[in-house]
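To illustrate the input format used throughout this study, we show a single complete record. The first block contains the structure-token representation of the backbone; no residue identities are included at this stage. The design step must infer an amino acid for every position from geometry alone.
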């Protein structure tokens, strides 16, 4: 089965600050804020929604295709993808721009100040849909280029491709009407509980009303697992057990990769969500979004230990 993953490919550049932001920001001077934080170096990680999902899908034995744009500084990330056998076929390189990047400063209290430069992500990946077989294709539309999110979801609906719609942090960028256009015809709408509240406020629709536009709603609940709502086989599923909570960043993308794997294998949505909960656990146990590793044997043993 062909798996299409549209979204962002980005560098995460993390700068740890050895103090606390609160000690350097004067509340009564916030209107003339001018601060400088001396950080303890810079750590570069590979990230972005599409990159993260594709990475874990590859560990799960799938061969995803990333639909995204990158820039002239893509070299290090490109080598990483090649090392892990991730296809570069549908990644568009914008030679006049930089790859999207997040600059994250984190203090000792785990507060963060982040600047995100979309750069190459401002351009469409211009994927050619003529070469796909709809009946043998599974797709996810995750946060990335706004035009791609809208146009690709419409194209999947037109071609009757099963797709997961995952608006994430880009929810505020769309009107309620456009949001409903993108949800309409999707196989699954996925969001965390806060994001789902934003979608309902944005569209003016309740969960029951949203099910008139999509077949399933999955709400990720962090350490509490997830819920699956479809008006029939509704379920609340517990999170997979973890050996230690190191960094929850990337758990959502890990969940989505496992969910897609489960669907590609022909499992029901609830059963596929359990695969997602298993893969999310690996991300939680490591710093960074593409730092975990497992063999198929290790993965499916963990799945069985948690859900069978």
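Output of the design step:
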């Amino acid at each position: 089965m062909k798996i299409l993953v549209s979204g962002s490919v980005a560098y995460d550049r993390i700068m740890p600050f050895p103090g606390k932001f609160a000690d350097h920001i004067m509340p009564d001077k916030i209107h003339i804020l001018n601060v400088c934080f001396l950080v303890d170096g810079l750590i570069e990680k590979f990230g972005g929604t599409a990159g993260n999902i594709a990475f874990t899908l590859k560990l799960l034995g799938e061969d995803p295709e990333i639909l995204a744009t990158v820039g002239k500084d893509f070299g290090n990330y490109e080598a990483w993808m090649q090392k892990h056998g991730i296809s570069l076929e549908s990644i568009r390189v914008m030679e006049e721009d930089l790859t999207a990047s997040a600059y994250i400063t984190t203090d000792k209290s785990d507060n963060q100040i982040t600047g995100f430069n979309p750069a190459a992500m401002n351009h469409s990946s211009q994927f050619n849909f003529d070469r796909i077989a709809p009946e043998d294709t599974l797709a996810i539309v995750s946060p990335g280029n706004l035009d791609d999110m809208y146009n690709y979801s419409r194209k999947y609906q037109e071609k009757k491709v099963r797709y997961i719609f995952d608006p994430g942090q880009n929810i505020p960028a769309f009107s309620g009407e456009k949001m409903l256009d993108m949800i309409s015809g999707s196989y699954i709408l996925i969001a965390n509980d806060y994001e789902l509240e934003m979608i309902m406020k944005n569209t003016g629709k309740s969960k029951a009303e949203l099910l008139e536009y999509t077949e399933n709603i999955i709400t990720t609940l962090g350490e509490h697992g997830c819920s699956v709502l479809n008006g029939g086989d509704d379920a609340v599923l517990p999170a997979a057990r973890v050996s230690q909570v190191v960094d929850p960043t990337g758990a959502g993308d890990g969940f989505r990769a496992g969910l897609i794997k489960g669907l590609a294998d022909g499992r029901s949505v609830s059963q596929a969500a359990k695969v997602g909960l298993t893969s999310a656990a690996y991300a939680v146990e490591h710093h960074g979004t593409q730092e975990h590793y497992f063999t198929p044997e290790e993965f499916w043993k963990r799945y069985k230990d948690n859900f069978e």
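Structural context for interpreting the output: The first helix runs from residue 49 to 59. The chain has a mean pLDDT of 94.
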